[in-house]
Sequence to fold (123 residues):
Amino acid sequence: MLRGGSGGHEDLKEKKLAERANEVGKKVMAKFRAFPEEISFCRRRARPGGDELHGDRGGQKNPKPNADLTKSIVRRCYEKGLIILTAGGYGNVIRHLVPLVITDDQLEKGLRILEEVMAEKAE
Fold:
């Protein structure tokens, strides 16, 4: 557990949470970038990042946002045991808000579920 106030900085250093955040972020973004290009566009302007979902991009520079696809992915992930959030003005962004204390096994399981669902939806 993290302490509040001035003790928080010591916890961050002691538990190496900044390093863990970078490690988790790299794994998540690598997976997001590997999703099918037809429906996904990975972006990261600031932490936390997200994955914008669109209809068939087909080489389009500015494809149409696909909120229905995003909702169906969120629903299917939930059915498989993964809770994810949507964001964005069009409701077409899957947010990744991974706890810094997540284990590598938990992270891999969640990413595997999301990868399976993205593959299903790309078919």
Remarks:
- The two ends are 43 Å apart (CA to CA).
- Strands lie at 40-43, 50-53, 85-87, 93-95.
- DSSP finds four helices and four strands in the chain.
- Residues 71 and 86 are 8 Å apart (CA to CA).
